[in-house]
Amino acid sequence: MVVPPIIHCDISSNNVLLDSQYEAHVSDFWTVKILKPGSHTWTEFAGTFGYAAPELAQTMEVTEKCDVFSFGVLSLEVIMGKHPGNFISSLLSSPSAKIAYNWPLIDVLDERPPQPPKKSIVGDAILVASLAVSCLSETPSSRPTMEVSKMLMTGKSPLADQFPMIRLGQLLYH
Amino acid sequence: MERELWGSVFIYWVLLARPLWLVSANMEGDALHSLRTNLQDPNNVLQSWDPTLVNPCTWFHVTCNNDNSVIRVDLGNAVLSGQLVPQLGQLKNLQYLELYSNNISGPIPNDLGNLTNLVSLDLYLNRFSGPIPESLGKLSKLRFLRLNNNSLTGPIPMPLTNITALQVLDLSNNQLSGVVPDNGSFSLFTPISFNNNLDLCGPVTGHPCPGSPPFSPPPPFVPPSPISAPEGNSATGAIAGGVAAGAALLFAAPAIVFAWWRRRKPQEFFFDVPAEEDPEVHLGQLKRFSLRELQVATDTFSNKNILGRGGFGKVYKGRLTDGSLVAVKRLKEERTPGGELQFQTEVEMISMAVHRNLLRLRGFCMTPTERLLVYPYMANGSVASCLRERPAHQQPLDWPTRKRIALGSARGLSYLHDHCDPKIIHRDVKAANILLDEEFEAVVGDFGLAKLMDYKDTHVTTAVRGTIGHIAPEYLSTGKSSEKTDVFGYGIMLLELITGQRAFDLARLANDDDVMLLDWVKGLLKEKKLEMLVDPDLHSNYIDAEVEQLIQVALLCSQGSPMDRPKMSEVVRMLEGDGLAERWDEWQKVEVLRQEVELAPHPNSDWIVDSTENLHAVELSGPR
C-alpha cells in the first residue's frame, strides 16, 4: 500500500522533540487537518513565523518544498545556536545585497561547544551548512528534495581542510 | 405651434444651464488660482495649477467629487508662505482644507465660515495671526479643528461651541486670552487643547477668570495653569528656558497628579459593588469605562451584536448611555499578560495616534479578568465587507471612492510609521482592517494591538498573526516585521481593492495559469488586459490610466525584497501624483536585469533530483 505524501507545514525547533538518546522525532501531527483539493478552508496562516517559505506570501500551493525550506531554517539554527533570521533576511534581499554569502562559516557556527573542533566535526558542520544554505533558496525548484538531503548528510566534505577560509556562498557549489 | 414653442423653451433652458455649470467650475479654479498668486511657492508645488483649464480637478493636491467640485486641498508640508485669500470661501463642497506645516501668515479669512461642508480645517504649524473668526461657528460638519502652533490672538469665539460634530480641537501654542468655554462641544475637551497660550482662564485651565467667583475645588487630575508668556523685553534665552521648563512640568504634572489620585482610590472589585458607578476618568481624550457600562451597551456581549472576530478577540456593536454607537473589542483573556499599569500605558500610547485616517480609540476598560477597548462605530463597515459581503440594497464602491480609500489608508499608515513616537507597525494590513466611516473615508483599524497583546518582537512565535496572502515573505521566513511588512500588506490590499477579490482567490487564479500571483498581475498589466483584473461590479466605469497607476503602486509595494519597496510616505506622494512614473520606469529596468539573471542556469541544478514533482501531495496544517 502506497502512503500518499504528507506535508507537515509547521517544521520548527519547537516541533522536533528529542528522546533520551538525543534522537530527533518530528512531532505535532496530531493537530493536522487534511484539506480537500480545491477547498477554500485554509485562509489563516498556520505555520510558524520565522520558518515558513517566502513563496507562501503569494501562492496557495503548498508543496513539499515548503517543508524543505523550514528544514533549512531548522538545520542552520542547530549549528548556529540561535534563529538565523539575519542570514535569511540577507538571502531574500536583492542579488547585489546577499552579503551573507561572504560570511565566514567559522563566524556563523555556535561558539559555545569546546574549541577547537575536530576535523570530523568540521566536516559534518560543513555538510549541514551546505545543505541548509541550499534548502533556503528563494526559488522552490532550486531547493533539494528531502531524499537528496538525506544522501548528502551521509557523505564527506572535501572542503574540511579549508575550514577557516570557507564562506557560506561557496557551499552553494558543493 | 404650441409644441414648437415648448421645444424652443427647452432648448433655451439647456443653453442657459450649461454656461452656469461652466461658470461654477471656473469659479472654483479662479478661487484657487487667487490663492496661488497670493502665496510664495519656492518648491513649485502649485506649478500644475493652470487657470486656463476647464476646472481645477486635474491639479496636483486638489481632489474633486464626481461633479468636478473641489472637496480636498492638501498642501501640508509644502514650504508655502504668504497669506490666504477670502475667495477660498467659494469652495462650497470643500471638506478638507489641509494647509498645516507651512509659513503662511496673516489673518484667517472670515469667509472660511462659508465652507459649510468642511470636515477638517488644519492650519497648525504656520504663522497665522489675528483673531479666530467667529464665522467658523457656522461649520456644522466640522470634526477636526487644529489651529495650534500659530500666533493667534484674542478670545476663543463662543460660536465654536455650537459645532456638535467637533471631535478634535487643538488651539494650543498661540497667544489667545479670555474665557475657555466649557459648554456645548467644548465640554469634551481637556487642557491639552488649550495649553501654552497667553492668558486663557476658566475651569478647564485651572485658572480662575478675574471678576468671577472661585469655582468648586478642581478635579484631582487637572494640571496647574499654563505658563504665561513673559512680558516685552525678556531675554530670548530666558524665554526658551522658561518654555522648556514649563513644557516639562506640563507633561509631568498630569501623570503625577493621576498617580496620586490612583493611589488614593480604593482597590476596584467589580462584583462586590455592582451598583456603584465608576467616576469618569479621562486620560487626555481617553475615557475609562466601567465593565457594567459596556455590558449594558452590548447587551452583555450578546452574540447578536458581534461585528467580527479577529486574532485579538471579538468585536461587538454597542450603544452607550449617551446614545452614541461604539465598537467594543474584547481582548482574548489568555492573551493579556502583564499588569494594569502596563496595559494602561500601552492603551495611552495607542490613543496618541490621532489622524483622520486612523481609528480613534475612545476608551478602555480594565478589570482583573477583562480587557476591553472602545472605538467609534464605523457605519460602513470595512473595505472587505463592502467588496464581498455587500447587502443587495447597497451600491458597490465606485472607482473614485476606491481611489480615495487607497489614498486615505496610505496616509493613515504613513502617519503610524513616520509621526508616531515610537513608530507603530501595524502588522496586519488587509481589507478587513481598513474601515469606512459614514462618508466612506478610509480609517485604518487594529493598529498597535500586537504590542498590546505582549508579543515580543525579538522572539519567533507560533501565534497566528496575519492572514495568508497578506504576510510579507520576509516576515514568514524570519519572523521579523518592520514598516516594510506593512507596505507589502498594503500592496496586496490595493489589489483586492481593484479586483474586489480576496488575495487567496487571486492567488488561485494565478495558480491556474501556473504562475505566482504578482507575476500574473505583471503579465496582465503588460498586455493591457485590465478588464481581467478590474472588479466587474465597476461595470467598466473607471479610467484605464488610473487603474494602471494603482496597479503599478500595488506591484511596487509587494516586491519580494523589503528594501526595494517604497516607504508609505513615498506611496502617499505617488498617489497624490508625484514620482510614480519615475519609480516605475526604474523598477522596470531592474526587472529586466533580474529576469536575465534568472534565465541563467542555476548552479544547483546538476545534483538536485526532484522526484516528487508530479505527485499529488496531501496538505496538512494546523496551529501548534
Automatic annotation (TrEMBL), chain A:
* Catalytic reactions of this protein: L-seryl-[protein] + ATP = O-phospho-L-seryl-[protein] + ADP + H(+); L-threonyl-[protein] + ATP = O-phospho-L-threonyl-[protein] + ADP + H(+)
Query: Could you tell me the EC number(s) of this protein?
Result: 2.7.11.1
In terms of Pfam families, this protein maps to: Pkinase
Has keyword Nucleotide-binding? Answer: yes
Gene3D superfamilies listed in its UniProt record: Transferase(Phosphotransferase) domain 1
Gene Ontology MF terms: ATP binding; protein serine/threonine kinase activity
Ranges for domain Protein kinase come to 1-160
Answer whether the UniProt record assigns the keyword Transport to this protein.
no
Keywords attached to this entry: ATP-binding, Kinase, Nucleotide-binding, Serine/threonine-protein kinase, Transferase
Highest taxon, organism lineage = Eukaryota
Give the protein name, as stated in the record: non-specific serine/threonine protein kinase
Originating species: Glycine max
UniProtKB/TrEMBL annotation, chain B:
Domain of life assignment:
Eukaryota
The GO terms describing molecular function are:
ATP binding; protein serine/threonine kinase activity
Q: Which reaction does it catalyse?
A: L-threonyl-[protein] + ATP = O-phospho-L-threonyl-[protein] + ADP + H(+); L-seryl-[protein] + ATP = O-phospho-L-seryl-[protein] + ADP + H(+)
Q: Which keywords label this protein? A: ATP-binding, Cell membrane, Glycoprotein, Kinase, Leucine-rich repeat, Membrane, Nucleotide-binding, Receptor, Repeat, Serine/threonine-protein kinase, Signal, Transferase, Transmembrane, Transmembrane helix
Annotated positions binding ATP? 329
Q: Which residues cross the membrane?
A: 238-261
One cellular component term (GO) for this entry is: plasma membrane
Primary enzyme class: transferase
E.C. designation(s) = 2.7.11.1
What membrane topology term does the record carry?
A: Single-pass membrane protein; Single-pass type I membrane protein
Using the record's annotation, list all stretches that form the Protein kinase domain. Answer: 301-588
Q: Where in the cell is it found?
A: Cell membrane; Membrane
Q: Which InterPro entries does the UniProt record give?
A: Kinase-like_dom_sf (IPR011009), Leu-rich_rpt (IPR001611), LRR_dom_sf (IPR032675), LRR_N_plant-typ (IPR013210), Prot_kinase_dom (IPR000719), Protein_kinase_ATP_BS (IPR017441), Ser-Thr/Tyr_kinase_cat_dom (IPR001245), Ser/Thr_kinase_AS (IPR008271)
Signal sequence coordinates: 1-25
Pfam families attached to this UniProt entry: LRR_1, LRRNT_2, PK_Tyr_Ser-Thr
**Similarity-based family:** Belongs to the protein kinase superfamily. Ser/Thr protein kinase family.
Q: Which PANTHER family match?
A: SOMATIC EMBRYOGENESIS RECEPTOR KINASE 1
Q: What is this protein called?
A: non-specific serine/threonine protein kinase
Q: Which organism is it from?
A: Glycine soja
